[in-house]
Amino acid sequence: MSVAPLRVGLLGLGTVGQGVIRVLQRNADEITRRVGRPVVVTHASARDTSKAREVSLEGITILTDPMDIAAKADVDVVVELIGGTTYARDLVLAAIARGKPVVTANKALLALEGNAVFSAAREKGVLVGFEAAVAGGIPVIKAIREGLAGNRIEALAGIINGTCNYILTQMTEKGQAFADALADAQRLGYAEADPTFDVEGVDAAHKLTILASIAFGMPLNFDAVAVEGITKVTPQDIKIAQALGYRIKHLGIAKRTDSGAELRVHATLIPEDKLIAKVDGVLNTVLLQGDAVGQMGLYGRGAGGDATASAVVADLVDVARSIGAEARHLVPALAFQPDAVRALPVLPLDQVASAHYLRINVADETGVLKAITAILAELDISIEAILQKEPRGGEDATVAVITSVIPESRFNQAVARVRSLPFVREDVSRFRVEHF
Ligand SMILES: NC(=O)C1=CN([C@@H]2O[C@H](COP(=O)(O)OP(=O)(O)OC[C@H]3O[C@@H](n4cnc5c(N)ncnc54)[C@H](O)[C@@H]3O)[C@@H](O)[C@H]2O)C=CC1
Ligand SMILES: N[C@@H](CC=O)C(=O)O
Ligand code: NA
């Protein structure tokens, strides 16, 4: 006797949407064996129905307005893959209001509107799967929410934006220009529709918001994340970091502190012998510190059609298995029971302690080193490493230092004083240094 398939309504036929169709078609037999019934895309939305796609749409009813699918009675689960936070929100809430489970890869939507979305889903007793929203194909949501549920999670840090990591890797390994590397990341389907979300750190901040929430049991609080991207990383900084034994990576970092949490995303110098420094290209990694498990790490493709589809389809398997289950038996969306999710005070950035890299280009090297080291000494900042380059072929002289771990406010004072030295050029460069 054949069993009725799980009927999937797919909103968005872009990079990830087509990946989902491809993976469901390719692995149909494996998935049916896991779920006990087929998982089949019956409806999909496409703004341009005449556009050629890389996947076969045979047997799929194509509609132009995704809302018609979100509201359809003969769709069992809605997969939102259009992105954005306005129409996507309406679609997700419309599906939930009709009692349909939802799977989404949309970290922007969840970071900004997730508290409301999960609350609506709870009232209706439906699952909202979002494994694809953080670190693409890496099953990090499941790992934290289920695999590490016995731990108090103290900290996590990782490369959680594939586009930034791809660009930094291309700049480091191939000397490629920033703009060219970004164009490649867009062509490969890694970048957001608006790539400034990637390169200015906003996408990583969306993901960190989600990770911190499920790791620490706090509500989603995007505004609390300190956000910096990679647009200030220059080829010169990459070379100097290498000469000092470091790689520059864009990281998301969340730590518990005595009184709350620390949440930040930024370009970071990492010693070249650390695991995280060796994760290149579109690959992502998340390192976690649990009190029982100790340090552990996950690693894999953080963006791209098939890798992200891997996570979407895993959520569809969870949905298929959960249909008919009592709401209290569902894994809580934010890992903790909703009435036990508690706000945590987030440490202001100027109180965060870390080591720092400072690079200064100077018109003339005479007396420079002495003046800079004097400022650092007066502020009780020790120097862990220093590099000095004499002026050559019309180029300025350069001084770069790595400091000891100090509160950021103190480093800010040092930078302000260094900038005001008469021989210092405008483009003083600074990044945090970490040793994960
Ligand atoms: N591309 C990637 O590697 C990853 C993407 N994501 C997320 O997955 C989602 C989809 O991303 P991609 O597939 O890369 O984007 P995409 O731009 O390739 O595809 C989005 C599709 O949705 C359609 N669409 C957009 N707004 C619409 C609207 N208002 N009405 C109807 N259709 C609309 C577009 O025409 C397009 O076909 C986004 O939320 C993104 O952040 C998550 C992880 C990885
Ligand atoms: N633009 C994102 C896509 C996956 O989340 C990235 O580059 O990581
Ligand atoms: Na994931």
Question: How would you characterize this protein structure?
Answer:
- There is one protein chain.
- With 436 residues, this protein is an alpha/beta fold.
- The protein folds into 3 domains: 6-138 and 306-340, NAD(P)-binding Rossmann-like Domain (Rossmann fold, 3-Layer(aba) Sandwich), CATH 3.40.50.720; 145-300, Dihydrodipicolinate Reductase, domain 2 (2-Layer Sandwich), CATH 3.30.360; 352-433, Alpha-Beta Plaits, CATH 3.30.70.260.
- It has 14 helices and 17 strands.
- Strands 7, 8, 9, 10, 11, 12, 13, 14, 15, 16 and 17 form an 11-stranded mixed β-sheet that branches. Strands 3-2-1-4-5-6 form a 6-stranded parallel β-sheet, sandwiched between helices.
- Strand 11 (283-290) and strand 12 (294-301) form a beta hairpin.
- It is elongated.
- Residues 136, 161-163, 190-192, 198, 203, 302-303 line the site of the ligand N[C@@H](CC=O)C(=O)O.
Q: How is this fold's topology laid out?
A:
Elements: E1 6-11, H1 15-26, H2 28-35, E2 39-45, E3 61-63, H3 66-70, E4 77-80, H4 87-97, E5 102-104, H5 107-124, E6 128-129, H6 140-147, E7 153-159, H7 162-174, H8 178-187, H9 196-199, H10 202-216, E8 226-227, H11 235-243, E9 246-256, E10 261-271, E11 283-290, E12 294-301, H12 305-322, E13 353-362, H13 368-378, E14 383-389, E15 397-403, E16 406-407, H14 408-419, E17 429-433
Parallel strand pairs: 1-2, 1-4, 2-3, 4-5, 5-6, 8-10, 10-17
Antiparallel strand pairs: 7-9, 7-11, 9-10, 11-12, 13-15, 13-16, 13-17, 14-15
Bound molecules: 1,4-dihydronicotinamide adenine dinucleotide (NAI), ligand LTNE7NMQ and sodium ion.
Residues 136, 161-163, 190-192, 198, 203, 302-303 line the site of the ligand N[C@@H](CC=O)C(=O)O.
